[in-house]
Design goal:
2 copies of one chain form a homodimer.
Chain A lengths: L40 H10 L1 E2 L8 E3 L7 E7 L2 E6 L5 E7 L4 E2 L12 E4 L4 E6 H9 L2 H27 L2 H18 L6 E3 L4 H8 L3 H13 L3 E4 L2 E4 L2 H6 L3
Antiparallel strand pairs in A: 1-8, 2-7, 3-6, 3-8, 4-5, 4-7, 9-11, 10-11
The first copy, chain A, binds a DNA duplex through helix 6.
DNA sequence: CGCGCGTTTGACATGACTCAAATGCTGTGG
DNA sequence: CCACAGCATTTGAGTCATGTCAAACGCGCG
């Protein structure tokens, strides 16, 4: 059980993407994954104008909470975030993890108030899309609306899969599914599909998957014994993707 | 433990709403709950033109499955539906129940293919909205797009709450939450908030909440012993809403 | 009227949780 | 730069809520 966490060349991560606040959509490396996909140059320039590229958020810092007034949607630019909702009695559920190019705050549109809290998992930055401007722009840009709908729909689809996971899967299946989902999202962004950092705590993972921390820890350890993965602190190496796939249920 | 199911004046239900296929949006009793909300008369008339009002679907009949080509969104007109997704190994998760005025198929927009199966729980009818026409219409009708976004967002928001339920709640809390959610949706539609029919089987309820059938049955029985509810087959009477609220967690 | 499925109830099994404690890692301040 | 404090993670032991298996019951459909 080695130690290590940040300065390992093995694990590249998304915190390094583009902290440069001036990069316009046209030159952004996330273009293929992001909202502007499919917009014409002229439209893209317009969209670019309404985007606020905020300063970066430190680990643990809130992007917004249910207390804040709804004003904007956000797209992750670098780093990663988690969103949570809370029950009346204080229990919390981690509803999602968000990587570069992914939207945060879509569940706020209805009722125009944030329904969840969003928090940075590491030093991260976002593109802020003031919703009023976005609506205004959408009136003359049907393609933008289509993109927005598509984003919402994608998240919806993912949430349904998570329901299946939460409702029907065993601890092993949950964690196998979780690992593969991350693998795919990393590789979609040009990172390794087999070696990556988990920027969230075991507690966050457990919470998100409807498990206890101890269970996550135990299953990870067992996966390692069985040669499926190697654990290096927050770093994970997938050693046998095929077998992991077989465990997903 | 009495018996009864359909012909009881006590329980009014949504199967009786408007089976009349000619009722236009303007005169539809669901207006306040449905898509057209906020559209001007002229726009409404246009929307009305693209809507196909299909024949009714019998209990158990599929509205669509993941095998069907994506073509349309649907709004429940009368009756009720359930949606399901399946894991590779055959396990199924009931992802939602849908009542008059609610959208089905929103998770299909992304990828333009149905991601779930929709099935009638009783004799039911829908308004079919061909997606192409809807997109076409949306180009000149920003308000329609806003409505659509809002619908997606609402479903997203509900799904996040369900994650909290599936991940963090006990069997008692799950069922209390379930009952109150139905109570609200019934009363929103002008039906009694305290007396209603559950059109789905115990199995569907259990599946949706991530429980075993036997657990649902047991908890319902206990709730009845404790004077919280009265069970009459598929009929439910909420006897102490305050106390049920207290159980939601 | 009778068959079959959906529902209820009981007895038992177990996966995952809780509690507890050791160990390791991280970030801070001296 | 190092040492310490505090939190995160791991590991173990025991419990419990909920699932599984089994059987009786009754309603609903043909």
């Amino acid at each position: 059980m080695a130690q290590m966490n940040n300065v390992t060349p093995l694990f590249k991560d998304m915190a390094k993407l583009e902290h440069d606040h001036r990069v316009a959509c046209q030159e952004c490396s996330l273009y293929r994954l992001c909202l502007p996909l499919g917009l014409h140059n002229k439209d893209l320039a317009q969209l670019d104008k309404i985007i606020k590229r905020s300063q970066s958020h430190k680990r643990g810092e809130a992007l917004f909470t249910t207390e804040h007034a709804f004003k904007s949607l956000y797209v992750v630019r670098s780093g990663s975030f988690k969103t949570t909702i809370s029950a009346t009695n204080g229990r919390e559920q981690v509803t999602g993890f968000y990587f570069p190019g992914e939207f945060i705050g879509l569940d706020a549109l209805y009722q125009e108030s944030y329904q969840s809290n969003a928090q940075a998992l590491e030093t991260s930055s976002v593109c802020e899309l003031p919703f009023d401007s976005l609506q205004e722009l959408g009136k003359d840009m049907p393609q933008l609306q289509v993109q927005l709908l598509s984003r919402l729909s994608k998240e919806l689809s993912g949430d349904k899969s998570l329901m299946l996971l939460l409702g029907k899967k065993t601890a092993d299946e949950k964690l196998a599914t979780f690992l593969l989902s991350f693998s795919k999202r990393f590789s979609d962004r040009g990172f390794s599909a087999t070696e990556f950092h988990l920027t969230m705590s075991r507690g966050d993972i457990a919470n998100h998957l409807g498990l206890a921390v101890e269970t996550v820890s135990r299953v990870f350890s067992r996966f390692q014994e069985e040669g499926l993965i190697t654990i290096l602190g927050k770093g994970i190496v997938l050693r046998d993707i095929a077998k992991i796939k077989g465990l997903c249920g």
